[in-house]
Amino acid sequence: xxxxxxxxxxxxxxxxxxxxxxxxxxxxxxxxxxxxxxxxxxxxxxxxxxxxxxxxxxxxxxxxxxxxxxxxxxxxxxxxxxxxxxxxxxxxxxxxxxxxxxxxxxxxxxxxxxxxxxxxxxxxxxxxxxxxxxxxxxxxxxxxxxxxxxxxxxxxxxxxxxxxxxxx
Length: 168
What we know:
Number of domains: 1
Oligomer: single chain
Shape: globular
Order of helices and strands: EHEHHEHEHHE
CATH architecture: 3-Layer(aba) Sandwich
CATH class: Alpha Beta
Number of strands: 5
Distance between the termini: 52 Å
Strand order of the largest sheet: 3-2-1-4-5
Strand content: 15-25%
């Protein structure tokens, strides 16, 4: 018998609406393939460094306190996803990393022997200049993951006319 298509699915989340839609799709795939789901949040240390350079964190010790707050925020939000009704019955492992998101995602793919990455096509941050010069996290993951990557956009909002019966 051939090996199953995927046994381990990685879904990186930044808690944006788009990443939560990716989580929903990943749950469906995990159920379909009877795969383990790895839920990853990466604390973006490059953003913290930028805040420090801009003077938004008063002293270096504030950076450690900020990291603690971000870890706490990540634990609360991942717990919310894990406790959601759609997550029931799926084997999910929660992972937390610190660093540059696309680097940490690619590293997790190798370390955890992931077969498929499911992630939102865009996240909660809007680094317009960085995206112009370096690409989005999703684009970078596609280039560096070393396994299939499914990018998930937000579903289109239903138009008002689709709710009104009898209109053409």
